């Protein structure tokens, strides 16, 4: 399996705080990889650097062997990286379908007009929001806004999809359908890197897990091995459980 | 859909033709009034073009307006008139690009303050230059342009600005501007080249403002920095666009026309209390109509319609 995303020696400093410290890992083409770690371990910062929201202080990120670190978010999106945000970023005064159309209009496909709307409706249907297409985004519930954000990310036609706690806050039924949705995205060929705390979803979806603690990578292995790694258990539960 | 579009275009052209014919039917006072009004219509449209969707509140309107007026004053003897307008527009463009590159990274209140400062800076620079280098503060403009000529030019410029706004509103560019106004992070992640788009729109809006200044300047005959760079022009433009609704195509016009007439009437009838009343009008608009008249009317209508529709639903 060839690597789609290659992260090497990645660091990010916020003033005196080293939030991400020399992290390296790779994500194979078509894989679903979990990025785990206790709160504050730097997972979201890593996602932010991959999507171009933050510039790395050091290290390299490359996609298909092409370096993307140092580019802005709009350039990186053109390389085929799309994401959702931990705290949903809807465009509140636009309608749901317009929110999705944005990614089509300025993404890699440059769709506009009727064709864009049709495609957008397809993505909304995929996440189960087609019936709310013409509502304002601000009128959606938080969970529906998350669905909309995923539809917007999919509309960008990504090769690499970054999900930042997309499954958080779902009830058990919604969680099952959410897991099913992500699995179907994975089998349609999209590579997924997901930050997640819901262990059930990680075990069900991720073939490989990268685990961070305090800005450092502490494990990078197939999911079952990574989760039973003594260093990981120590990070989550403390010394006596390891 | 297309028949509605046809109606709109026909309506637009009819109004333009009627306004073009206006000077043949009215006296010089009306022309003077219309020149002032069209100037503000063009300024408000240009202002809303950039500031409406992006929510970057700019007080630099008079910086560009004044640059246009001053360019006209400086070159009125050395350049033929069409070239004069071109040069004025290019100077406005150059200043807008430099300023835009330097400042469009600022957001919120910092941008407001910067643009206000910019207008003052330009005024002080021009004053300094005139006093220390050319040795004269104030210039005369003698151009063989009739009031009707100025009126027609401003009408053409306003129509142009309106048509451009209409086109932008229907294009992907319009959507990009809206997204930038809502959330720049999302805009960037959706592939929108934020800096380039903001700069382009800021420059376009600035060039229109510059041309308004250049076209109107001959009306004054005598120009000095305190006239050309009067900050009230920035505030009036802003409040006109806000009154109508800066996010709507018709908004700037719906704000500029009534407010201009109101201010004319106030300055004629209450010359001593003009500024006080102006301030009260500003405050009233911000408190009572924060989203503009059009939004207010529309909300009122939908409220009535839903109120009327509800009993019918119950009967079902």
TrEMBL record, chain A:
Q: Tell me, what's a Pfam family for it?
A: BCA_ABC_TP_C
Q: What is this protein called?
A: ATP-binding cassette domain-containing protein
Keywords, ordered alphabetically: ATP-binding, Nucleotide-binding, Transport
Q: Which GO terms describe its molecular function?
A: ATP binding; ATP hydrolysis activity; L-isoleucine transmembrane transporter activity; L-phenylalanine transmembrane transporter activity; L-valine transmembrane transporter activity
**Which superkingdom is the protein from?**
Bacteria
Q: Could you confirm whether the keyword Ribonucleoprotein appears in this record?
A: no
Biological process (GO) annotations held by this record are:
D-alanine transmembrane transport; L-alanine transport; L-isoleucine import across plasma membrane; L-valine import across plasma membrane
User: Per its UniProt record, what SMART domains does this chain match?
Assistant: AAA
Family annotation (InterPro entries): AAA+_ATPase, ABC_AA/LPS_Transport, ABC_transporter-like_ATP-bd, BCA_ABC_TP_C, P-loop_NTPase
Task: Pull one GO CC term from this UniProt entry.
Answer: plasma membrane
Residue ranges annotated for the ABC transporter domain, each copy included: 5-239
């Amino acid at each position: 399996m060839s690597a789609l995303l290659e992260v090497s020696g990645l660091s990010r400093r916020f003033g005196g705080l080293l939030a991400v410290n020399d992290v390296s890992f790779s994500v194979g083409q078509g894989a679903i990889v979990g990025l785990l770690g206790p709160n504050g371990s730097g997972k979201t910062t890593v996602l932010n650097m991959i999507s171009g929201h933050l510039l790395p202080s050091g290290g390299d990120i490359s996609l298909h062997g092409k370096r993307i670190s140092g580019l802005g978010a709009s350039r990186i999106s053109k390389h085929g990286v799309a994401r959702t945000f931990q705290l949903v970023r809807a465009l509140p005064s636009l309608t749901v379908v317009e929110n999705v159309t944005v990614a089509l209009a300025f993404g890699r496909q440059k769709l506009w007009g009727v064709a864009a709307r049709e495609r957008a409706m397809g993505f909304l249907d995929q996440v189960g929001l087609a019936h709310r297409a013409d509502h304002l985004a601000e009128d959606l519930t938080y969970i529906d806004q998350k669905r909309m954000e995923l539809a917007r990310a999919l509309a960008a036609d990504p090769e690499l999809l970054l999900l930042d706690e997309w499954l958080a806050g779902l009830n058990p039924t919604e969680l099952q359908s959410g897991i099913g949705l992500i699995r179907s995205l994975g089998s349609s060929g999209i590579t997924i890197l997901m930050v997640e705390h819901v262990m059930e979803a990680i075990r069900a979806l991720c073939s490989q897990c990268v685990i961070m603690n305090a800005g450092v990578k502490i494990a990078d292995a197939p999911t079952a091995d990574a989760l039973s790694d003594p260093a990981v258990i120590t990070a989550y539960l403390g010394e006596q459980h390891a | 859909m297309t028949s509605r579009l046809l109606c709109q275009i026909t309506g637009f052209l009819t109004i333009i033709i009627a306004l073009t014919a206006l000077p043949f039917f009215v006296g010089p006072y009306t022309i003077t009034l219309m020149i002032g009004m069209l100037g503000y219509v063009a300024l408000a449209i240009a202002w809303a073009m950039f500031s409406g969707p992006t929510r970057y509140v700019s007080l630099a309107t008079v910086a560009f307006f004044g640059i246009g007026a001053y360019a006209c004053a400086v070159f009125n003897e050395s350049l033929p008139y069409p070239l004069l307008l071109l040069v004025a527009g290019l100077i406005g463009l150059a200043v807008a690009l430099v300023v835009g590159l330097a400042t469009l990274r600022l957001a919120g209140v910092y941008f407001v303050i910067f643009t206000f400062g910019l207008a003052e800076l330009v005024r002080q620079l021009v004053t300094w230059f005139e006093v220390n280098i050319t040795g004269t503060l104030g210039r005369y403009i003698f151009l063989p342009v009739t009031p009707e000529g100025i009126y027609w030019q401003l009408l053409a410029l306003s129509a142009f600005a309106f048509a451009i706004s209409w086109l932008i509103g229907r294009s992907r560019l319009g959507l990009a501007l809206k997204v930038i106004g809502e959330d720049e992070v999302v805009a960037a992640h959706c592939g929108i080249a934020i800096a380039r788009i903001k700069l382009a729109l800021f420059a376009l809006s600035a060039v229109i403002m510059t041309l308004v200044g250049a076209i109107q300047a001959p009306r004054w005959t005598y120009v000095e920095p305190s006239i050309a760079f009067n900050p009230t022009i920035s505030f009036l433009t802003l409040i006109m666009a806000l009154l109508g609704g800066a996010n709507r195509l018709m908004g700037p016009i719906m704000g500029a026309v009534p407010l201009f007439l109101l201010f004319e009437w106030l300055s004629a009838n209450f010359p001593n209390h003009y500024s006080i009343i102006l301030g009260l009008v500003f405050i009233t608009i911000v408190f009572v109509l924060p989203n503009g008249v059009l939004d207010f009317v529309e909300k009122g209508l939908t409220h009535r319609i839903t109120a009327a529709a509800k009993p019918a639903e119950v009967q079902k």
